[in-house]
């Protein structure tokens, strides 16, 4: 017989819970949690088994004992379900196709991003973003075999506080090399063109444009008319990006061409936006969490060194090469990216494991257009 409480519907401490009421209480607990029927059934079965297995006592004692055990059982069962539900909710917020280690690193990076303040660009100042890119350059294949090296290009951008004011970009090939196949002596003996043409080597190409719309300068278009993208995140583009990680993940997949690289291509697009230095902290944090949903993403190097800075590399292997991003989880800093061959390249004969490109990025604030901070 069920005993009811007062008119407010409150239950007395010694009230007996019927099985129907117990089930209803469980159904109402964390109703939004993605628990399964199996979880609930297992927990309920264990608790009811404890009640059933109690030794027989006198009628009055059995009734009081049953009340206490049903009440205790209900409380225990609610705790069990709450615990299970909590775990499921935590996992649904962070778990994804990425490996557990990658998820942990990205969650920490997202938190570090919010914890670290963005550099403040005051009126008259400029956000200075310098990118040091190393890309493979094949220079020929004499009788001794193919020859190639990584060549360094430096791209510097000065972005004003007011987006619509004039920006400046300076790009230069430095002449620095990292040989992958052969060496400079062998290449010159084979009469190969080792360096870039003299009109490029060591010289800078300088562009100026409002809104950083340097592409418009080359094509003769009006600056500030080029739509924003992951490669050129305008204020309008950034404002339109979702801050919810799941929605941002879906947007990233829609915008990145599918091709055969799968989610590796989406990682490239994310790296493009992070490299720009123009994403605010809330977007960067959401983007790191969105990346936990990329299939095949895993930690590939716990101590990746790019341009003298060390971070954690996370990458996706598409079967031919691996796309990595390198981050500092403690501060949420995007350090750079790299591509690594994961199979032999028939075009260049480069072996598996060769780094074919890597890019490091640093962002700071300077006082004047063209100013460079000390390295």
Topology:
Elements: H1 19-28, H2 37-52, H3 59-94, H4 100-115, E1 126-140, E2 147-160, E3 166-181, H5 184-189, E4 204-210, H6 214-219, H7 235-239, H8 245-255, H9 263-275, H10 281-291, E5 298-306, E6 309-317, E7 321-328, E8 333-341, E9 355-366
Antiparallel strand pairs: 1-2, 1-9, 2-3, 3-4, 5-6, 6-7, 7-8, 8-9
Keywords:
alpha+beta; 10 helices; 2 domains; globular; 35% helix; single chain
Question: How would you sum up this structure, described in words?
Answer:
The protein is of the alpha+beta class. Helices cover 35% and strands 26% of the residues. It folds into two domains: 19-94, no CATH class; 100-366, no CATH class. It is built from ten helices and nine strands. A nine-stranded antiparallel β-sheet has the order 4-3-2-1-9-8-7-6-5. It is globular. It starts with 18 loop residues before the first helix and ends in a 9-residue tail after the last strand.
Question: Which residues sit in consecutive blocks of at least 5 with pLDDT less than 50?
Answer: 1-17, 21-95
Helix fraction bin: 25-40%
Spatial order of strands in the largest sheet = 4-3-2-1-9-8-7-6-5
The SSE order reads HHHHEEEHEHHHHHEEEEE
Q: Cα distance, first to last residue?
A: 81 Å
The total beta strand count reads 9
Query: What would you report as the Rg, rounded to the nearest angstrom?
Result: 30 Å
* Spatial shape: globular
Pairing-aware structural class of the strands and helices? alpha+beta
């Amino acid at each position: 017989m069920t005993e009811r409480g007062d008119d407010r519907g409150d239950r007395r401490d010694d009230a007996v819970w019927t099985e129907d009421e117990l089930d209803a209480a469980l159904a109402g607990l964390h109703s939004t949690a993605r628990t399964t029927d199996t979880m609930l059934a297992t927990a309920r079965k264990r608790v009811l088994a404890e009640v059933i297995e109690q030794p027989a006592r006198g009628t009055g004692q059995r009734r009081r004992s049953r009340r206490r055990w049903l009440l205790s059982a209900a409380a225990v069962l609610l705790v069990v379900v709450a615990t299970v539900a909590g775990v499921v909710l935590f996992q649904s917020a962070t778990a994804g196709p990425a490996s557990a280690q990658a998820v942990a690193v990205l969650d920490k990076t997202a938190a570090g991003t919010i914890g670290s303040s963005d550099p403040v660009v005051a009126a008259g100042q400029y956000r200075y973003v310098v990118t040091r890119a190393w890309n493979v350059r094949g220079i020929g294949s004499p009788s001794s075999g193919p020859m190639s090296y990584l060549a360094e290009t430096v791209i510097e951008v000065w972005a004003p506080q007011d987006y619509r004011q004039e920006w400046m970009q300076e790009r230069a090939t430095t002449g620095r090399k990292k040989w992958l196949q052969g060496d400079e002596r062998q290449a010159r003996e084979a009469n190969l063109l080792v360096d870039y043409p003299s009109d490029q080597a060591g010289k800078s190409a300088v562009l100026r444009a409002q809104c950083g719309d340097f592409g418009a300068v080359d094509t003769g278009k009006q600056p500030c008319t080029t739509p924003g993208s992951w490669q050129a995140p305008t204020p309008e583009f950034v404002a339109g990006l979702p801050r919810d990680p799941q929605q941002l993940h879906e947007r990233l997949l829609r915008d990145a061409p599918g091709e055969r690289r799968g989610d590796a291509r989406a990682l490239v697009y994310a790296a493009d936006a992070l490299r720009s230095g123009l994403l605010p902290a809330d977007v960067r944090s959401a983007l790191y969490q969105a990346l936990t949903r990329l299939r095949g993403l895993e930690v590939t190097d716990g101590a990746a060194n790019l341009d003298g800075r060390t971070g954690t590399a996370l990458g996706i292997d598409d079967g031919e090469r691996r796309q990595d991003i390198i981050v500092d989880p403690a501060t949420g800093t995007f350090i750079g990216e790299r591509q690594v061959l994961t199979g032999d390249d028939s075009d260049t004969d480069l072996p598996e494991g060769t780094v074919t490109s890597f890019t490091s990025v640093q962002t700071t604030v300077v006082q004047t257009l063209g100013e460079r901070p000390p390295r």
